[in-house]
From TrEMBL:
Protein name as it appears in the record: STAS domain-containing protein
Gene3D superfamilies cross-referenced by the UniProt entry: STAS domain
Renumbered residue ranges of the record's region Disordered: 98-118
InterPro entries: MlaB-like_STAS (IPR058548), STAS_dom_sf (IPR036513)
SUPFAM superfamilies, A to Z: SpoIIaa-like
Residues covered by the MlaB-like STAS domain: 10-90
Length: 118
């Protein structure tokens, strides 16, 4: 994505209440329908301590975005939230991480001499 691609940013704040999930999903749909470039950035810095309610919200937002032809990207996700998402099998893109298909620049694989080819 380049600097000219429009991106919608939603600032999520906690604690997450079950009755608010539908409203957040509607905002994601609106952002993608309004030309958000296929990505909605969710600023999760204000969610508070990570828990299953936050995981449920983020899973539903990602599902909503994918159904609308887009995806979400997390901003300001702390290590505890990223670890919890990984524990439950929810792999969401976070800002500042390199996509899995693209190797980081300047990193080369080292080969030990004497290692069998494999």
């Amino acid at each position: 994505m380049d600097a000219k691609t429009p991106v919608a940013v939603l600032v999520l704040s906690g604690p997450v209440r079950p009755g608010e999930v539908a409203g957040w999903c509607a905002r994601v749909r609106e952002a993608l329908a309004g030309g958000a470039g296929g990505v909605v950035v969710c600023d999760v810095g204000g969610l508070g301590p990570p828990g299953l309610a936050a995981v449920d919200l983020l899973a539903r937002l990602e599902l909503t975005a994918r159904r609308a032809g887009g995806r979400i990207r997390l901003r300001d996700a702390g290590p505890a939230l990223v670890a919890l998402l990984g524990l439950v099998g929810l792999r969401l893109q976070t800002e500042g991480e390199v996509e899995q298909r693209e190797p980081p620049l300047g990193v080369e694989e080292a080969v030990e001499t004497g290692d069998p080819a494999g």
